[in-house]
Amino acid sequence: MTAARPILAVENLSVRFGGVRALTDIAFEAPAGATSGIIGPNGAGKTTLFNCISGFIRPSPGARVLLDGRDVIGERVDAIARLGIARTFQNISLSRTRTARENILAGLHLSLRYGAIAAMLPLPSVRRAEAEADRAVRDVAERVGLTERVLATEAGALSLGLQKKVEVARALVRKPRLLMLDEPAGGLNDAETADLVDCLRGLRAEPDLSILLIDHDMNLVMPLCDHICVLNFGERVAVGPPAEIQANPDVIACYLGADA
Amino acid sequence: MTIRLAGILLLLAALVAFGVAAGTGSLNGYFIYVVNLTLINAIAAIGLVIVSGVAGQMSLGTAALLAIGAYGTGILTTHFGVPWIVAAIVGAIAATIIGTLLAAPALRLTGLHLAIVTLAFGVIVVQLIGKGGKWTGGMSGLTLANADVLGFALSTEARRYYVIAIVFFAVALSASAFLRRKPGRALLTLRERELTARALGINVAHYKTLAFAYSSFLAGLAGALYAPLKGYISVDDFTIWQSIYFFVMIAVGGMTSIAGGVLGAIVVTVLPEALRGLQESANAVFGALLMLIIIFVPGGLVSLAAPLLRLLRRGREGEAST
Q1: How close is the nearest chain A Cα to the Cα of B174, in Å?
Q2: Which of A90-99, A212-221, B37-46, B155-164 has the lowest mean pLDDT?
Q3: Could you tell me which residues are beta bridge partners of residue A232?
Q4: What percent of chain A has pLDDT over 90?
Q5: Can you tell me the mean pLDDT for A160-174?
Q6: What ipTM was estimated for this complex?
Q7: pLDDT over 70 (residue A3)
């Protein structure tokens, strides 16, 4: 275990939708600089947990979501994003009619500091900022493996695998401290999945970036993650390194659907 | 040279060429008047492109905001002897402040409900102006004092054209920079994917308010130019029909681009004038033409240029790679 403060710590987190307990007393930590995974069968509450962390859903009182030690419960979604969390969505959330480049540029919203009036004027400082933004898009495209031709293509005309990569690039371009990926490989074929895993493996090596990813596919998550939390029916089943998780009889049971 | 720069130079050349022609006195004054009206409508249409087309906030209050700009200017110049340029700025700012209040319902309502609120706003403003007594001239309207810009009297159509064209050019340029850069991207993202916009750190309430403020300012500015153009303004100039015409402009021209708003303003302003010869059937022909455009060019007239632009862009890339 590292002594450093975790980039993300969730404590005592419960969510109810009417009478349904979507999540019950979840606690886990994502170590800084590492790649952590949340796995579990469909309906286990993974995305709900993501939505609590990014501020879309407010959990029941008593919960704490600490981003680098700071409790973000009750903060607006955009304020939480400002603290250095970037995320993707399970369903593609790109603008289909705009190019990949324009989609990724939208991810730099927080990095561009000029105001609305300045945007209307031919100011050198604004031009410089936009030129830097263009460079940042090219850099991130290189990191995730998007070609110039892909950048110039309308997002709706790209394959699903490339669209997922554009989404990752859009989240990554403003250099977040925590990158949250919701089912990055969902709906991809084997070749596309392998390509995406390669891309994520590259990001994993970056020391300043912590990654938290959700997937129900153990084969994807196991080789990528240093640290895993398993959910089932809204409850935490297990937490630990991949090797331990794989051997855990409770985890095997919830995946095979057997009586534990 | 980029395609954008070429477009700007082309627009500038057209505006200057018309200005030179108007200056020689060889053009019919009515013809210049129609061009002036077109440019004023284009300024308001650009504002509507921003709030409704790009930000997706359905607004039917445009004419009322124009009225605030026009009456603000008219009252200050006529009753208080304030110079036109100062009155115009005050009128546009008044429209901005009142129009920004419309963002408050927009943060809770969408689509048709928001349209109804903005429509009601338009009705109320016109009613209030009609009851304004001697200040607004009530239902009989307001005749304006002669306007001038720093001693340059706006006494002829050509002279008015110079001022209107300069304001229009500045608006077109600044609005297209606004849309191409961070605020435009934020507005497009929040219209298409509001949750994603939030996750990207875009303060949705802030940007919706900004869209209303900016578009109200442009409507108020258009009104401030409209007052001296007409010399006489009345509530009949700013009915809800006029608001609907502004919406038709951006639907016909193209909802999400400056060029779309301008094209739409040209069609909706010039076409009825051109069809005048048809007398009673003019309105029917105008309506039929609008219908044909909406049906066969749903992306607006500006979308017809898309294949041409793609060709130009490809040509440039080809040049760059050789």
Answers
A1: 4
A2: A212-221
A3: A235
A4: 79
A5: 96
A6: 0.92
A7: no
A89 interface with B at CB cutoff 8 Å: yes
Residue B76 to residue B68: CA distance in whole angstroms:
12
Report residue A64: phi and psi, to 5°. -135, 135
B90 and B98 in contact (C-beta within 8 Å)? no
Residue of A nearest to B196 (CA): A93
Nearest CA in chain B to A102: B185
Q: Are A109 and B177 inside 8 Å of each other by CB? A: no
The CA–CA distances, whole Å, from A187 to A141, A216, A221 equal 22, 12, 15
Inter-chain CB proximity B198 and A76 less than 8 Å: yes
Chain B contact for A121 (CB, 8 A cutoff):
yes
Shortest distance between the Cα of A243 and any Cα of chain B, in A, equals 33
Looking at residue A1, what is its pLDDT? 47
Q: Do A114 and B182 touch (CB under 8 A)?
A: yes
Task: Measure the CA–CA gap between A163 and A93, rounded to whole angstroms.
Answer: 9
CB contact under 8 A, A81 and B178: no
CATH 3.40.50.2300 describes domain A1-84+176-260: no
The answer, for A110 touching chain B at a CB cutoff of 8 Å, is: yes
Phi, psi of B320 (to 5 degrees): -65, -35
Distance in angstroms (rounded) separating the CA atoms of residues A87 and B70? 47
CA atoms within 13 A on the CB side of A21: 11
pTM exceeding 0.90: yes
Domain ranges within chain B, ordered by starting residue: 3-321
**Residues 163-222, chain B: which have Cβ within 8 Å of A?**
174-175, 177-178, 181-186, 188-189, 192-193, 195-196, 198-204, 210, 214
User: What are the tens digits of pLDDT across the range A66-112?
Assistant: 999 999 999 999 999 999 999 999 999 999 999 999 999 999 999 99
What tens digit of pLDDT does each residue of B260-314 get?
999 999 999 999 989 988 888 888 999 999 999 999 999 999 999 888 887 887 7
What is the CATH number that goes with domain B3-321? 1.10.3470
Do the Cβ atoms of A122 and B177 come within 8 Å?
yes
Rounded to the nearest integer, the mean pLDDT of chain A is 92
Q: Tell me which residue of B213, B225, B215, B211 sits closest to B168, measured CA to CA.
A: B225
Model pLDDT, residue B264: 97
What is the structure's pLDDT at A5?
83
Asked whether residue B322 carries a pLDDT value surpassing 70, the answer given is: no
Domains in chain A: boundaries: 1-84+176-260, 94-175
Inter-chain residue contact A76 with B203, CB threshold 8 Å:
yes
In chain A, which residues have their Cβ closer than 8 Å to the Cβ of B201? 78, 81-82, 109-110, 174
Residues 6+ apart with CB under 8 A from B9: none
